[in-house]
Specification:
single chain; alpha+beta; N-terminal domain of TfIIb; rod-shaped; binds zinc ion; 37% strand; 1 helix; 4-stranded antiparallel beta sheet
Length: 146
Amino acid sequence: MTMNTLPPVAKSFFAFCKKCDADRYHVVLAHTSATAAKIKCEICGSQKSYSLPKSQTRAGKPLTGVAAKKREESVKSRKSSHRNEYDMLMSNETVPMVTYNMKSKFNKNTKLQHPKFGMGFIKDAMNDKIEVVFEDEVRSLIHNRV
Ligand SMILES: [Zn+2]
């Protein structure tokens, strides 16, 4: 049951009674604030305070549901597209394989064996650095250091 306002005093409304462990009619004894009331179970007579659910207020809603899910999916798809690119680059059998050493000079379109990051693919080579696609991410490494 959803309500935007508290039921008036002396009126009864359906609410969950912990003591009865069931939905029961509760009579409103008094309003304790704009969003809370003292109520009494009509069946067992137990008294409790009832507050309007906070989710009724639209402002300040946390980022849940669709918005949060969308965010999560965009991160996931970005990761998998990187993975696809990596797999595609590494599947090229004709590309030469070299071992990384910061003193050597590398060319692009070369497979690179790095002692820490593993196998990568040199996507771009500049004068002093190379852009390498590794399994987890693209890293910029120095090379041609003399
Ligand atoms: Zn009860």
